Amino acid sequence: MTSEFEYITERKHSVGVRTPLLPIEEDDEVAAEIIKTRGASFHGSVFNLSCTVIGSGIMSLPATLKVLGLVPGVALIVIAAFLTDTSIEMLLRFSKPGLAFSYSDLMDDAFGKIGKILLQICVIINNIGCLIVYMIIIEDVLSGSTSSGVHNSGVLEEWCGEHWWTGRAFVLLVLTIVIFIPLICFQRIVHPIENELEDSSDMRAIVLSSVALCATVYVMTGLFGFLLFGNSTLSDLLSNFDTDLGIPHSSLFNDIIRLSYAGHIMLVYPIVFFPLRLNLDGLLFPSAGPLTSDKMRFALISMGLIAISLVGAIFIPTIWIAFEFTGATVGVLIAYIFPASITLKDPHGIATKKDKIVSVFMIIGAVFSNVVAIYSDAYSLLE
């Protein structure tokens, strides 16, 4: 649930800020009209926010339940949902006194320039990891994957057979050129959800509803995915859908499931890419003008990040490896430790005793999980 957490917290404070993916020309009346449009519905905002939250992590949940067991696994999902909602509520509340319009502004307000830079570094690492995971999932769906010496066929392999042009690297390169690059350069697809609301005070209820919806989807996916495939559940659940499910038209349903989720991942890709590009630009060029006003800087940063995620996806074999390192380190920092630390620092004296108790619990739990995860990662590499 933390893979798109940074996007929520980075963009939800942007009251009055309308930053498109590309500069808007003065005569672009359509774009200007879109930016002026307000009054998004409550349900529409919940749906949009939920689409950004439900990302690549959901495909590894059945494998997580296989390792932890059903009851502990479901309990951890519920706890994560509660802590995520608490973290976002803290960020919303503590942003108002300091007039912080982004997550990085809030860290700057609480901890100064060092805090802001630390957050930007974590966001860059986390979001690059997310983009790599997205690409690996799409590779698995279209070109297949190999786990423990067993090959799971992809959709293109099933339809066309094994050829060089159905291989992982070539397919991913084509998708990057044809789909990802146009998507991240399309100037009208990302606007702050809060800015679209007629009443921005609804944001708290929207976040709560979205987290509850996402937690339900996560539990159902993890539970039924594991029950369906049992001990044969793979780290990327979509790779399991190359076998006969024992129902009529099984092959058709398998392809629909895999291609539908791959399509969702392609559309979420630019949403995660957008704050990644902004944070990298802020880290490298803190004194420069707006990124959207410098086309050369915009293009170089965009192409560099795409190249990094493309190379990472080609050479990292499974999403499990990417999740182990990003989720076990910077993901937890962004989602839980930083918001709790801001609350404990309490630069404007608005934290309650309950806030501080919850923050201490959040930090202890996050640090413990980080230590265990890092130890597990290191141990697996040394085996």
UniProtKB/TrEMBL annotation:
Q: Which UniProt keywords apply?
A: Amino-acid transport, Membrane, Transmembrane, Transmembrane helix, Transport
Q: Does the keyword Transmembrane apply?
A: yes
Residue ranges annotated as transmembrane are 63-83, 117-138, 165-186, 206-229, 259-278, 298-322, 328-345, 357-376
| GO molecular function annotations of the record | L-amino acid transmembrane transporter activity
Q: Where in the cell is it found?
A: Membrane
Keyword Plastid on this protein? no
List, for all copies, the residue spans of the domain called Amino acid transporter transmembrane.
39-183, 188-376
Membrane topology designation:
Multi-pass membrane protein
Q: Which GO terms describe its cellular component?
A: organelle membrane
Q: Which InterPro entries match?
A: AA_transpt_TM (IPR013057)
Give the protein's recorded name: Amino acid transporter AVT6A isoform X5
Q: Which organism is it from?
A: Ziziphus jujuba
Q: What is the lineage of its organism?
A: Eukaryota, Viridiplantae, Streptophyta, Embryophyta, Tracheophyta
